[in-house]
Design brief:
Elements lengths: L2 E5 L3 E7 L4 H5 L7 E3 L2 H10 L5 E6 L1 H12 L2 E9 L2 H13 L2 E7 L4 E7 L5 E6 L33 E5 L6 H13 L3 E5 L3 H6 L1 H11 L2 E5 H8 L3 H8 L5 E5 L5 E5 L2 E5 L12 H14 L4 H15 L9 H13 L1
Helix pairs in contact: 3-10, 8-9, 10-11
Length: about 325
């Protein structure tokens, strides 16, 4: 079984359902965006919504994808930084319970949190305080310098893995990203990149294009992210992205997804669901897609598995599904 390693901002999602979009305007948070905020701003957002019901979920884009892969039965690992606090313990326990090998670094800073505001149309807007997650650095990828819960000083973190999945939210740390993909390539791993929020793509466009061209084999983007990088609409964007990476995927929300590799292009639909919250949909799509690739499925089959997971997770608040739902999904995969 091929093993998949992920790296990202280790965050705990604080999920809050809103009654309307008006609150986003009052908080000066552009709908659908991911805004980086400091601790004080994060606390201010939480204070403004103290009357609303909240739920916690271990999150971060790459962590969600790796967690989903593990729940499907894949062998996985994850690199990230958490604080030595209650939220940090919550995050690591969530990985271990799913069967993920946690290559974690611990910090004296607070564990990062993403306040996820969900509007009635199921769209989510993030106010993200990175906290300890921001300390992840290129040095942590060197087995001589890092302290891990599962140290592997002889062969390094990347040894034994076949795929390396990285989230675009990390691209603001250019040194970290470049060193990570260099090491992945040196170890013969297939590199997968899931784009970040469109505003993060806009702010790091040149760097992203450089990294994708040199190192990335699989690229995932939603419509807004693809547009931010290429200036094109989905049909043309997936064509342009396929020139940069071996496999390009553009997720088009309720319309499904577009996949292109070489001269082959596919349009994948969605499953019928009752959406509650779109948090984690793109991340879980990547889980299904990468699981399919790692198990030798065709690209359309990979896309359909991605759609199956994405459709199921949006029926839950947050990026995690119940054990019963995972059991049902695994059963549908066997039948398929």
């Amino acid at each position: 079984m091929k093993k998949i390693l992920g790296m990202g901002n280790a965050l705990v999602d604080v999920m809050i359902s809103l009654e309307s979009d008006n609150i986003l305007e009052l908080l000066n948070l552009p709908k659908g965006s991911m805004q980086l905020v400091d601790k004080e701003r994060s606390n201010a957002v939480l204070d403004a919504l103290k009357g609303y019901q909240k739920s916690l979920s271990a999150g971060g884009s790459a962590a969600n994808t790796i967690h989903g892969l593990a729940m499907l039965g894949a062998k996985t690992g994850y690199i990230g930084v958490v604080g030595e606090d209650e939220l940090g313990g919550f995050f690591v326990r969530d990985l271990i319970q799913a069967g993920v090998d946690p290559h974690m670094i611990h910090s004296n800073q607070e564990t990062g949190r993403a306040v996820a505001l969900v509007t009635p149309d199921s769209e989510r807007t993030f106010a993200t305080f990175l906290g300890a997650a921001i300390e992840l650095s290129a040095d942590h990828l060197d087995p001589v310098n890092r302290k891990s819960e599962i140290p592997n000083p002889k062969s390094g973190i990347f040894s034994g893995y076949s795929y390396f999945h990285i989230e675009g939210y990390l691209v603001q740390n250019h040194e970290l990203i470049r060193r990570a993909v260099e090491l992945a390539q040196e170890h013969g791993l297939i590199v997968s990149l899931d784009m970040a929020s469109y505003n993060v793509v806009e702010a790091n466009k040149d760097f992203l294009l450089s990294i994708i061209t040199e190192y990335v084999d699989i690229i995932f983007a939603n419509e807004d992210e693809a547009r931010a990088l290429t200036g094109l609409e989905p049909e043309d964007a997936v064509h342009e992205l396929s020139k940069l990476a071996e496999i390009a995927v553009v997720k088009t929300g309720s319309s499904g997804s577009l996949i292109k590799s070489g001269d082959d292009q596919y349009s994948i639909g969605v499953i019928k669901v009752t959406p509650i919250d779109t948090t984690g949909a793109g991340d879980l799509y990547a889980s299904g897609f990468l699981y399919g690739l790692a198990n030798g499925m065709s690209l359309p089959e990979c896309g359909e598995l991605g759609a199956l997971l994405a459709g199921n997770v949006i029926e839950f608040m947050g990026s995690k599904m119940s054990a019963e739902r995972w059991e049902k999904i695994r059963g549908e995969m066997v039948k398929g």
